[in-house]
Specification:
By secondary structure, the protein is mostly helical. The strands form two sheets. The chain has a three-stranded mixed β-sheet, with helices on one face. Strands 2-6-3 form a three-stranded mixed β-sheet. The termini are far apart.
Length: 255
């Protein structure tokens, strides 16, 4: 279908038959199956195919997030290591016992290994492919934002950005994992790669990032910042829960 380059991205999507802004019925956790997730992958892939073929002037208004999450994680790890080192010098890190400090070094190693695995997955080539293909991510790919029956429905485009399509897969898999559902992640990642025509490096990259202990890192950052928002016992409890949840939900031993 021919269109003017003056057509806005949202209008272009509608011209391609995508329905926008309509409410989508939320799915109950117990109704989410691996087959339903695979079907969702196909809907996400359809959006990606349509989106990357938009070449209008509205592209300049789309946020570019390529490479930003990995860099954020690297900075996060570097700052935490420095802050913990400073706390240790004044014997502050162990003031609540060794449980927090011992778990920190274990989780720090996991975090660093996940980033290393992501980088080893030919990361720069994945970025080059994404830029060459004009890949646009939806951002929120969960069931409450994109669905497909007779037509493709998208509730919100607020998360639209230039990024590797791997990240739309990472988003939905993390949402499912964080809800407490434990699927065969290796199998689902492979199915997503098939839907998106991605290679084994992409699969390794996705796995590395869904293994990154983001919940734990969030709470250890708050603990180190020590703004007085919560007690040390509360931080210890949240960190312990994050570790336990991490162990329950991964189901694989990559990092």
């Amino acid at each position: 279908m021919e269109y003017s380059k003056n057509i806005l991205f949202e209008k272009y999507l509608q011209m391609q038959g995508i329905h926008l802004g309509e409410d989508i019925v939320s799915l109950k956790k117990k109704s989410i199956s691996e087959e339903l997730v695979k079907k969702q992958f196909q809907s996400i892939s359809k959006f990606h195919y349509i989106a990357k073929n938009y070449h209008g002037h509205d592209l300049k208004n789309i946020d570019n997030k390529i490479g930003k999450l990995i860099e954020r994680y690297k900075i996060e790890i570097r700052i935490l290591k420095r802050n913990i080192s400073e706390l240790e010098k004044v014997n502050e890190f162990n003031k609540d016992g060794k449980s927090i400090s011992d778990s920190f070094y274990k989780m720090l190693k996991i975090s660093e290994n996940c980033i290393s695995k992501a980088m080893e997955a030919d990361y720069l080539e994945l970025i080059k492919r994404s830029m060459k293909n004009n890949e646009i991510c939806l951002g929120n790919t969960y069931f409450n934002n994109i669905s497909e029956n007779e037509v493709l429905n998208i509730k919100s485009l607020n998360g639209i950005c230039f990024n590797m399509v791997e990240f739309d897969g990472i988003y939905i898999l993390n949402k499912i994992k964080d809800s407490g559902i434990n699927f065969n992640w290796n199998s689902l990642i492979h199915e997503y790669a098939l839907a998106e025509k991605l290679n084994e490096n992409s699969e390794a990259f996705i796995m590395a990032l869904i293994l990154y202990p983001s919940e734990y890192m969030k709470w250890i950052r708050r603990y180190v910042k020590n703004s007085g928002e919560f007690s040390n016992d509360y931080y210890a409890m949240k960190l312990s829960k994050a570790i336990n949840k991490y162990g329950e939900n991964k189901g694989v031993n990559l990092c």
